[in-house]
Amino acid sequence: MTEKQKNAVTxxxxxxxxxxxxxxxxxxxxxxxxxxxxxxxxxxxxxxxSVLDLxxxxxxxxxxxxxxxxxxxxxxxxxxxxxxxxxxxxIQRKSLPDFxxxxxxxxEQMPFPNQCFDAAAIAFGIRNxxxxxTGLAEIFRILKPGGVFAILEFSLPEPxxxxxxxxxxxxxxxxxxxRILGGQSAYFYLxxxxxxFPSPAQFAEELTQAGFLCxxxxxxxxxxxxxxxxxxxx
Length: 234
Description:
The protein is built from 9 helices and 7 strands, in the order αααβαβαββαβαααββ. It is of the alpha/beta class. It has one domain (3-231): Rossmann fold. A 7-stranded mixed beta sheet has the order 3-2-1-4-5-7-6, with helices on both faces. The longest helix has 21 residues, at 161-181.
């Protein structure tokens, strides 16, 4: 992805910052709350004290992780500054400014030293990286040995009744709902990136190629979303 393309995607997310939460909750029928809780509980078994929330958006995942991991301090990293403004407002309302720290930054070129976080997490942002290998290498770099990387990402369900309904929703209903919400181009982008993202098995192989040990691949919501847990080896 060129710098111009990256700026265009960042600008798109800045433009929908005001409707981003409504879109997430509406288009997932409220299941996004459950998906984030599942990730937060999965991290809790590793007792992380320092967590990097990548593509943090408006801060919902960081807040959920903090609830499930009350000893953790969290850096919420995103390139879209208007999203980070929303995150900061939300963090203030939740009385969490001493524990969650919004920061502007690029996953593919992070401003952190080697091996400085116990855990990293990303919800529905890994597919937005054009250079996923570069991003995964950076995430591996900033994790301590034994550190855990938790990922939530959309996936395409197996063929069948639900799979057919989901593909119809993705191709026909999602863009129309995006138009109603006022962010049509963003929801075309969402549709296209979901379709283009590798299958869970293929993405797990990408994690392995980056040096991670893949610990868990868990389909959620009949396979519409997948939770991955991967470790940086000791």
